[in-house]
Amino acid sequence: MGIVIFSSLAASFLLPELSDAIFQKNDYVAQAQQRNTIQYTVAPGDFLSNIAQRFYGDGSEASWRKIYEANRSVIGPDPTQLQAGMLLVIPEANQSQPNSVASRGNLEDLLLALGRRETGQENPPYNIENQLGFMGKYQFGEALLIDLGYYRANFYYGNGASRNEWQGTWTGKNGVNSKQDFLNNQNNVQETAIREAFELNLKRINSQLEQNGLSLRQYIGQQRGGVVITISGILAAAHLRGETGVIRLLRYNQVSQDENGTSILTYLREFAGFQTPYD
């Protein structure tokens, strides 16, 4: 007995009941395919491997080639020639994206959570200092405030001193002329400074990666130590261990700890999933 192939055109000449059944089946298949396929717009610095990592949790060649074959007509003959703005379809994508993190709030929520973690208090105070001289709601140290332009010193924690002594001079930036001004959060300086710190750390991280032909965006959605990488997690991790600690974690999977033994992975996990202006 031969094989009989029905086309949509042939179905139109069949009995109405059979024709309807075939079209309904075709609609069902199309809908099922659509449910398992989502669209993604290529961003600067994207590679097929990091896109595959984001949607499949696996950046191997087998995974990224699945995306490439579905988009060969868009990408062209060379799979490395992705261009920002290309609209790709991601076949068999898990809509829940296991390597993504559910949103936990906005930047203000992130800052409240960070302040609670840094101070250990439900309502984090500004006028607080720990045994190593880190101070304020976000536990600023001398080195960071030097980098941000609020403070000057030649001898400070991380450069000869065993703790933050605050024996240097204040620059007057944003009206802050003393340690006490800073602890009093004069002119809302601590909230301004933490945002400046976020921006500075991101700039430095991106700069170091770009010098090696890399991009921070390509790491988003990947995992380190079982923790999904997000921008908010990176911001907190850099606040804990600086941009160097983040770079070593991203590029070499090196896990560092602060003076109290807190792992960079702890901050990467604890502060993941907040929406920020830097996403």
TrEMBL record:
- Name the UniProt record assigns to this protein: Nucleoid-associated protein YgaU, containings BON and LysM domains
Q: Which InterPro entries does this entry report, sorted A to Z?
A: LysM, LysM_dom_sf
What the entry lists under SMART domains is as follows: LysM
| A Pfam short name | LysM
Domain LysM, chain residue ranges per copy: 38-90
- According to its UniProt entry, this protein's organism is Nostoc flagelliforme CCNUN1
